[in-house]
Protein backbone atom coordinates (compact mmCIF):
# COMPACT_ATOMS: atom_id res chain seq x y z
CA UNK A 1 0.00 0.00 0.00
CA UNK A 2 1.36 3.41 -0.98
CA UNK A 3 0.97 6.29 1.50
CA UNK A 4 -1.54 8.87 0.27
CA UNK A 5 -0.66 12.56 -0.03
CA UNK A 6 -3.58 14.91 0.49
CA UNK A 7 -3.39 17.84 -1.99
CA UNK A 8 -1.92 20.84 -0.18
CA UNK A 9 -1.27 18.73 2.88
CA UNK A 10 1.80 17.53 4.69
CA UNK A 11 3.04 14.10 3.65
CA UNK A 12 2.09 11.54 6.27
CA UNK A 13 4.91 9.63 7.90
CA UNK A 14 5.07 5.93 7.23
CA UNK A 15 4.22 4.18 10.49
CA UNK A 16 7.44 2.71 11.84
CA UNK A 17 5.86 -0.64 12.54
CA UNK A 18 4.77 -0.98 8.90
CA UNK A 19 8.23 -0.32 7.43
CA UNK A 20 10.30 -3.48 7.72
CA UNK A 21 14.04 -2.92 7.34
CA UNK A 22 16.29 -5.90 6.65
CA UNK A 23 19.52 -6.73 4.84
CA UNK A 24 19.25 -7.37 1.12
CA UNK A 25 18.77 -10.94 -0.01
CA UNK A 26 19.78 -12.44 -3.34
CA UNK A 27 16.11 -12.70 -4.30
CA UNK A 28 15.76 -8.91 -3.86
CA UNK A 29 18.16 -7.85 -6.63
CA UNK A 30 15.53 -7.61 -9.38
CA UNK A 31 13.29 -5.35 -7.26
CA UNK A 32 16.32 -3.35 -6.15
CA UNK A 33 17.47 -2.76 -9.74
CA UNK A 34 14.01 -1.53 -10.70
CA UNK A 35 13.82 0.74 -7.66
CA UNK A 36 17.27 2.26 -8.25
CA UNK A 37 16.68 2.90 -11.95
CA UNK A 38 13.19 4.36 -11.53
CA UNK A 39 13.97 6.45 -8.41
CA UNK A 40 17.05 8.07 -9.93
CA UNK A 41 15.16 8.88 -13.12
CA UNK A 42 12.13 10.37 -11.37
CA UNK A 43 14.01 12.31 -8.70
CA UNK A 44 16.80 13.85 -10.78
CA UNK A 45 14.78 15.59 -13.47
CA UNK A 46 16.74 18.73 -14.34
CA UNK A 47 19.76 17.52 -12.33
CA UNK A 48 21.17 14.78 -14.57
CA UNK A 49 21.35 14.80 -18.35
CA UNK A 50 19.66 12.18 -20.52
CA UNK A 51 23.13 10.79 -21.27
CA UNK A 52 23.98 10.47 -17.55
CA UNK A 53 20.64 8.79 -16.81
CA UNK A 54 21.10 6.35 -19.71
CA UNK A 55 24.58 5.46 -18.47
CA UNK A 56 23.21 4.77 -14.98
CA UNK A 57 20.36 2.68 -16.41
CA UNK A 58 22.90 0.56 -18.34
CA UNK A 59 24.99 0.09 -15.21
CA UNK A 60 21.98 -0.94 -13.10
CA UNK A 61 21.04 -3.62 -15.63
CA UNK A 62 24.60 -4.97 -15.93
CA UNK A 63 26.15 -7.80 -13.89
CA UNK A 64 28.71 -5.25 -12.63
CA UNK A 65 25.98 -3.56 -10.57
CA UNK A 66 25.45 -6.67 -8.45
CA UNK A 67 29.20 -6.80 -7.87
CA UNK A 68 29.18 -3.16 -6.70
CA UNK A 69 26.29 -3.79 -4.33
CA UNK A 70 27.92 -6.87 -2.84
CA UNK A 71 30.82 -4.67 -1.67
CA UNK A 72 28.42 -2.84 0.67
CA UNK A 73 26.02 -3.65 3.48
CA UNK A 74 22.69 -2.95 1.79
CA UNK A 75 19.46 -2.60 3.77
CA UNK A 76 16.01 -2.65 2.19
CA UNK A 77 12.84 -0.98 3.41
CA UNK A 78 9.66 -2.93 2.73
CA UNK A 79 6.18 -1.49 3.13
CA UNK A 80 3.36 -4.01 2.86
CA UNK A 81 5.52 -6.27 0.68
CA UNK A 82 6.72 -3.50 -1.65
CA UNK A 83 10.39 -2.51 -1.80
CA UNK A 84 10.21 1.23 -1.09
CA UNK A 85 13.82 2.10 -0.32
CA UNK A 86 17.41 1.00 0.08
CA UNK A 87 20.46 2.38 1.82
CA UNK A 88 23.97 1.01 2.17
CA UNK A 89 27.37 1.63 3.73
CA UNK A 90 30.92 0.31 3.67
CA UNK A 91 34.28 1.20 5.19
CA UNK A 92 35.99 3.99 3.25
CA UNK A 93 39.04 2.58 1.48
CA UNK A 94 40.94 5.86 1.88
CA UNK A 95 41.35 5.94 5.65
CA UNK A 96 39.45 3.07 7.19
CA UNK A 97 38.18 5.50 9.86
CA UNK A 98 35.22 6.79 7.87
CA UNK A 99 32.11 4.88 6.86
CA UNK A 100 31.00 5.70 3.34
CA UNK A 101 27.27 5.83 2.82
CA UNK A 102 26.64 4.13 -0.50
CA UNK A 103 23.40 4.08 -2.39
CA UNK A 104 20.19 5.45 -0.94
CA UNK A 105 17.11 5.27 -3.09
CA UNK A 106 13.51 5.84 -2.02
CA UNK A 107 10.41 5.20 -4.10
CA UNK A 108 8.20 7.64 -2.18
CA UNK A 109 10.18 10.70 -0.98
CA UNK A 110 9.09 12.76 2.03
CA UNK A 111 7.40 9.95 3.96
CA UNK A 112 10.29 9.27 6.39
CA UNK A 113 11.52 6.17 4.59
CA UNK A 114 14.92 7.67 3.74
CA UNK A 115 15.41 8.95 7.30
CA UNK A 116 14.60 5.51 8.71
CA UNK A 117 16.99 3.77 6.31
CA UNK A 118 19.76 6.28 7.02
CA UNK A 119 19.28 5.81 10.76
CA UNK A 120 19.70 2.06 10.21
CA UNK A 121 22.91 2.24 8.16
CA UNK A 122 24.45 4.93 10.39
CA UNK A 123 23.65 2.81 13.48
CA UNK A 124 25.17 -0.29 11.87
CA UNK A 125 28.32 1.59 10.90
CA UNK A 126 28.53 3.16 14.38
CA UNK A 127 28.22 -0.31 15.96
CA UNK A 128 31.24 -1.31 13.87
CA UNK A 129 33.26 1.53 15.39
CA UNK A 130 32.81 4.31 12.83
CA UNK A 131 32.10 7.81 14.09
CA UNK A 132 32.55 9.66 10.80
CA UNK A 133 30.46 9.32 7.66
CA UNK A 134 30.92 10.47 4.09
CA UNK A 135 28.50 10.43 1.18
CA UNK A 136 28.42 11.52 -2.44
CA UNK A 137 25.02 12.38 -3.85
CA UNK A 138 23.30 14.06 -6.75
CA UNK A 139 22.30 17.69 -6.22
CA UNK A 140 18.62 16.91 -5.60
CA UNK A 141 19.43 14.96 -2.41
CA UNK A 142 21.79 17.48 -0.79
CA UNK A 143 19.02 19.12 1.34
CA UNK A 144 18.02 15.67 2.66
CA UNK A 145 21.54 14.97 3.88
CA UNK A 146 21.96 18.47 5.30
CA UNK A 147 18.82 17.91 7.42
CA UNK A 148 20.55 14.80 8.79
CA UNK A 149 23.58 16.82 9.88
CA UNK A 150 25.85 16.32 6.86
CA UNK A 151 27.95 19.24 5.66
CA UNK A 152 29.11 19.91 2.11
CA UNK A 153 32.80 19.13 1.67
CA UNK A 154 33.13 19.65 -2.09
CA UNK A 155 31.54 19.09 -5.49
CA UNK A 156 32.82 16.99 -8.35
CA UNK A 157 32.10 13.80 -10.26
CA UNK A 158 31.93 10.17 -9.24
CA UNK A 159 32.81 7.33 -11.57
CA UNK A 160 30.47 4.46 -10.75
CA UNK A 161 31.76 2.29 -13.60
CA UNK A 162 33.45 2.85 -16.97
CA UNK A 163 31.07 5.05 -18.93
CA UNK A 164 28.97 5.99 -15.89
CA UNK A 165 30.16 9.27 -14.40
CA UNK A 166 27.74 11.44 -12.44
CA UNK A 167 28.07 14.98 -11.05
CA UNK A 168 27.88 14.77 -7.26
CA UNK A 169 28.22 16.72 -4.05
CA UNK A 170 30.48 15.23 -1.39
CA UNK A 171 29.24 15.59 2.18
CA UNK A 172 30.56 14.53 5.58
CA UNK A 173 29.28 14.09 9.11
CA UNK A 174 30.91 13.35 12.44
CA UNK A 175 29.10 11.88 15.41
CA UNK A 176 29.63 13.19 18.88
CA UNK A 177 31.68 10.83 21.00
CA UNK A 178 29.48 8.82 23.35
CA UNK A 179 29.49 10.10 26.91
CA UNK A 180 31.03 8.01 29.65
CA UNK A 181 28.41 7.07 32.23
CA UNK A 182 28.36 9.46 35.18
CA UNK A 183 28.90 8.13 38.68
CA UNK A 184 25.24 8.83 39.55
CA UNK A 185 24.01 6.52 36.78
CA UNK A 186 26.23 3.69 38.02
CA UNK A 187 24.55 3.47 41.44
C-alpha termini separation: 48 Å
The assembly state of the depicted protein chains is: single chain
Q: What fold name stands as the CATH topology?
A: Aminopeptidase
Number of domains: 1
Q: CATH homologous superfamily name?
A: Gcn5-related N-acetyltransferase (GNAT)
Task: Provide an overview of this structure.
This protein is an alpha+beta fold and 187 residues long. The protein has a single domain (19-175), classed as Gcn5-related N-acetyltransferase (GNAT) (Aminopeptidase), CATH 3.40.630. It is 29% helix and 32% strand. The protein has five helices and seven strands, in the order E-H-H-H-E-E-E-H-E-H-E-E. The chain has helices at residues 29-43, 50-61, 63-69, 113-127, 142-147, and strands at 19-23, 73-79, 82-91, 98-106, 132-137, 151-161, 164-174. Strands 1-2-3-4-5-7-6 form a seven-stranded mixed β-sheet. A hairpin with a 2-residue loop joins strand 2 and strand 3 (82-91). Helix 1 (29-43) packs antiparallel against helix 2.
Q: Could you name the key traits of this structure?
A:
Aminopeptidase; 187 residues; seven-stranded mixed beta sheet; alpha+beta; disordered C terminus; 5 helices; disordered N terminus
Amino acid sequence: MTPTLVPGGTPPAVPGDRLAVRPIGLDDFSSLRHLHASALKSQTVGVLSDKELAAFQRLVQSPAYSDLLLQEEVYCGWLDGELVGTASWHANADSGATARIGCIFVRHPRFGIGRRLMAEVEARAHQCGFGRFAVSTTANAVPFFEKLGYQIASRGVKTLAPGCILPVTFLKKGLAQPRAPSSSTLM
